[in-house]
Amino acid sequence: MQVKAYGAHSADRPLEAITIERRETGPRDVAIEIAYCGVCHSDLHTVRSEWGGTVFPCVPGHEIVGTVTSVGAEVTRFKIGDTVGVGCMVDSCQHCGSCHDDLEQYCENGFTGTYNAPTADAPGHTLGGYSRAITVDEHFVLSIRHAPEQLAAVAPLLCAGITTYSPLRHWNAGPGKKVGVVGIGGLGHMAIKIAHAMGAQVVAFTSTPAKRQDAIDLGADSTVVSREPEEMAAHNGTFDLIIDTVAASHDLDAYVNLLKRDGALVMLGVPEHPHPSPNIGSMIFGRKTIAGSLIGGIAETQEMLDFCAEHGIVSDIEMIDIQQIDEAYGRMERSGVRYRFVIDSASLDATA
């Protein structure tokens, strides 16, 4: 099946209109007409091959919301007309220990990413959501229960939402817990909203004083300007959990010092250059943890979507047409969006 898409043919060329092939609906497949696709910083890194290993043509996009148009004979969970989502994964081995535990993101044989991952489908690697349609194994399709008018703003939940929900859930954020969020961007703004809805006391850390009110509006109880030593010191030894969303190299000791005994600093961003080595002594003397977390499994992603629907949580977005994607990438690099771009996939219909 031929589908309109937007992709790059090399790392030094802008994205452009292309036509791609999608497989016909197999027995366990769900075919989806894409309505919206969020724009993740990972899209930019991959298109420009900044992480290496990009296979071209590259069609990014792993924050997908759309409508089911066809289902295979063995599909039991979805029907034509359902509103569904697809996140960062479209397959995994489904038989290793991690997959058995509903933690497909840690698949011991490697999960199949929604784009730029090996696949039997043409052209030999997965092509993502900057396209008009996609066909996905039922197991990796998610139910969307938000109201129709919220669907565009739901799209970023499929990456930014689950990436922050998973560690908050795993480290038991909730009433009586003090949770810090470092960085108020695409991930950070979701972490604030979700932690607040879980009932935690939420403190937002920002290097930009102008974002103080933004953080409060998102649900933070208070804010700290991380460049102000006195503001930081006032919170020493008081946090149960700190979610660090910053993808640039920075001093982790400043945040480890803020943790209680048995507190955890959880890293979500992968920096271009390694963080300075932390002071192990401050970890040993408080039994503190620096940990990492990667998106979430399919069951947990569904749990997150249901939680967000129940609490009225969506991402703060700016809608764009696909023809504006390179401009959007430039603004994203300059932190010029609050807080997530979402592509109106109908704009692909206007491409040649």
What tags apply to this protein structure?
6-stranded parallel β-sheet; 11 helices; globular; 2 domains; alpha/beta; 7-stranded mixed β-sheet; Quinone Oxidoreductase, Chain A, domain 1; single chain; 352 residues; Rossmann fold
Would you write up a description of this structure?
- It is a single chain.
- By secondary structure, the protein is an alpha/beta fold.
- It has helices at residues 41-47, 97-100, 151-154, 160-170, 186-197, 212-218, 229-233, 253-256, 280-284, 298-311, 325-333; strands spanning 2-7, 16-21, 29-38, 64-71, 83-86, 89-91, 112-113, 133-137, 142-143, 178-182, 201-206, 222-225, 239-244, 259-267, 289-292, 317-321, 340-344.
- The strands form four sheets. Strands 3, 4, 5, 8, 9, 16 and 17 form a seven-stranded mixed sheet that branches.
- Helix 4 crosses helix 5 and helix 4 (160-170) packs across helix 10 (298-311).
- The protein is globular.
- The model has no long low-confidence stretch (mean pLDDT 96).
